[in-house]
Every structure is written in structure tokens, then in C-alpha cells.
Design goal:
- The structure is a single chain.
- The chain is mainly α.
- The chain has one domain.
- Helix 3 runs antiparallel to helix 4.
- The chain is globular and about 50 Å long.
């Protein structure tokens, strides 16, 4: 993460790295689930996924704080891509938090409720894809920042 009070560019770069890592860890966890790894390995990977999600949330908050102190240059390509990344990050965090809440509910076991859960998880997956795309877009205008 960028140092406390870092510039908006430093915080944008930090947000990019957090988003890229979040995407990497989610892909890794999905591969472990598909390949039949042990429960212990899956549990450890899930812990890392949760840490990367928390890191993304912290990077979003730091970027927001930096942007409120000093708006970015309106004509810089990185600034536009950073704002797209910020928006995609917030959407992913929102969908992920909602899905976590829905998955923990004990009254969601009927056919209709399971259908609703499936839609919500699809929306979360879509938000994760949008996050990856926004991170790739930011990385393209800030090569070498990772």
C-alpha cells in the first residue's frame, strides 16, 4: 500500500497492485478447486484470497482519501483508468460482501432462494471479471508499476 498520505498517483498504483493480486489469488483458488487439491491447501488458499480482498478494500479507502485531498489531473490517462479501477473495485467489494452475507443465511435453502443465490454469485463473478479488466487497463497506461 502507498504510504499514509501518499499522492493520488501512488495510491492509484497501490490500488492497481491490490486489484491485480486479488485477481491472481481468486484465479489460483479456482484452479485449486478445479484440480482437486486437499482441503488443507484449499483452506490456506481461501485465507490468502480473504487477505487479498481485505487489501483491496484498504487500497480503495486510501485512494478515496487521496482523491478527496487532491483531485487528479483531468487530462492524464492514468487518472481516468484509476477512476475506472476504483469503481470496479468498489463494485466487486459490494457484490462480494453481499454474497458472503447471503451464503451465511440459514433460510436460503429453497429452490427460489438457491436460484437467487446463483444470480448473486454470477453478479459477483462478473464484478471480479470487470475488476481484472480495469486492472489490465490501468496497467497498460502505467507499465512497470507492478
Amino acid at each position: 500500500m502507498a504510504a499514509r498520505g501518499g499522492t493520488i498517483l501512488e495510491n492509484a498504483d497501490s490500488l492497481f497492485r491490490a486489484a491485480a493480486e486479488c485477481g491472481r489469488q481468486h484465479r489460483r483458488y479456482a484452479r485449486l478447486m478445479e484440480n482437486g487439491s486437499t482441503n488443507a491447501e484449499q483452506g490456506l488458499a481461501l485465507d490468502v484470497v480473504k487477505m487479498s480482498d481485505d487489501g483491496l478494500s484498504a487500497a480503495v479507502a486510501a485512494y478515496e482519501k487521496a482523491a478527496n485531498k487532491s483531485p487528479g489531473p483531468g487530462d492524464a490517462a492514468w487518472w481516468h483508468k484509476a477512476n475506472m479501477l476504483w469503481h470496479a473495485s468498489r463494485e466487486y467489494i459490494r457484490h462480494h460482501a453481499f454474497c458472503d452475507g447471503v451464503a451465511r443465511r440459514k433460510d436460503m435453502h429453497g429452490r427460489d432462494e438457491l436460484g437467487e443465490m446463483a444470480v448473486e454469485f454470477d453478479l459477483e463473478a462478473s464484478a471480479l471479471l470487470a475488476l481484472r479488466m480495469a486492472a489490465d487497463s490501468y496497467g497498460a497506461v502505467r507499465p512497470g508499476v507492478e
